Amino acid sequence: MAPYQLNFNRSLGFAVTFLLILLAAYRLNDEIKSTKNLIVTQSRSTYGQRDVSNTQTSSKYSTVKKCISREHPLKSNYTAPFLHPSQWMDGNGDIYSGMWWQSIASMLQTNYSKLGFLEAVSFKSFQNNKRVVQTVDWLDVNVEHLSKYAKYFSGSEVEEDRVAELIYGYTERTKCPEVYDVQSAISSTIAILPLRVSSLEKKNQVRLIQLQLTATLASLWAAGFPRALVVGVSHNESIVVRESFDLLEEHLAIQFMDLKYIQIDTTDMKLVPKVALARFQEIIMQPNKPQDTPINRTELTEWIGKDNISKWKYVYFTEPDLILHIRPEAIPSLSLELEKGHIINAHRLQPLPHIQQFSHILEGINSSHPNKALKIRNKVLPNAASFGSIHSLNPSSGDVCCDQGKFYPSHIDNPTSPAIKRKGCWLWEFCGFGPNTNHSDWNAIVKNHELLVMHPFLSLEQGTRIPVVHHGQRVCTARRDGTICSNLDSNTNKARE
């Protein structure tokens, strides 16, 4: 073959290849434009109303997940049964769950500006409104309390990373919510989340605070709450909130939720719940005051959004570390209770350090890092005997867990009242955990966890899937046979009217 023919063939081959590359790039560009147009359209209709100025996207935990939310009617005509106050309000802290849901009219009856400690925003509300209700079925309304679990594992990067995975794993699983065709109080509820971040120095701890806030917001988003306000008192909170809002980008592109961060100037830095609720009361009352000004109107819009103030009838208050679970079929019953002026108080469930969440990590470090493996084993409950018997429940499958009333199995001498906590132990659930635990000493394990050994462990399939117990030392009967819980007292409904 002549040299010029060889060069011509090569040139022709290069030209064809170049043309094919250009064609592929052109098609790819069209696909990218189409995808961007779709995302922009979604963002304008849903995501665009959130307030995240100067946000930088964080991809550390981000994953792409296509999801289609299916809207369908409720599965059954379900009426949620409620406990009689005498069956759960015992003055032993059982009443505290870190959240409440009540009407704005009811909330305005409490003067939050005069409170002196964090938990008072709940206790004072309940004192002013005697009609505080809890469901018989724990799965109708409950919250998972995350911060104690996260703090327990602080100081170890391996353990902190695992806790971060567990919390964000829940957030990722919420991306495909079941949208139920039901008119409820949720659509006219503003959620308020007070947040305090005292320092940004310990990066891992700040990351866990941010992930807990994200999970809490994701649970409200999954339940269908239209607006959530995160209230802080310093620049630290604004940093954490921006990161949290970033991680919810894909959620907000699927389903609308208006997110807003509000920073209040105050010297009362430690009592953010009190400061947030007191300011909300002032804002909500401003339209009725003669000194109303355009500046007041601007702040009013920051709190309630662009909707008319009359749209909002209820307030959902929650600490920023509580994942909310609501059985969709129970929403009409809950809405009716709110319309009557009652306060909804969820069952507070506490995740426990358990080897199930760390077994795969131990397999990987048993030989390479035996000291780290031993430390983890000594810090968690074993998968043995009653500690290894965990009821995994899923409300979507019809599972229930019926409250047993004032029955506290850990208090063997007097099971009608909670067991007395050991000295120096703040939360009864964590009384048996400590640095001196030996995972190979079964006698010591049972003795250390004598308050837990009588309690059945639950695991919420739609939650973190970490074993949990009731913060109030109560127990429930788990059932998967399709039957529902019933009132334990025939006068339950009459007593609340």
Please give a structural write-up:
- It is a single chain.
- The chain is globular, with a radius of gyration of 26 Å.
- The chain is an alpha/beta fold and 497 residues long.
- It has helices at 3-45, 104-107, 120-128, 147-152, 157-173, 203-223, 235-247, 249-254, 272-285, 294-304, 331-339, 359-365, 370-379, 442-448, 492-496, and strands at residues 71-72, 99-103, 132-133, 141-145, 179-180, 189-194, 227-232, 258-263, 314-318, 322-326, 343-344, 347-351, 390-393, 400-403, 457-460, 468-470, 476-479.
- The model is unreliable at 2-10, 24-65 and 489-497 (pLDDT under 50).
- The strands form six sheets. Strands 2-9-6-7-8 form a five-stranded mixed β-sheet, sandwiched between helices. Strands 10-4-12-16 form a four-stranded mixed β-sheet.
Summary keywords:
497 residues; 17 strands; alpha/beta; disordered C terminus; globular
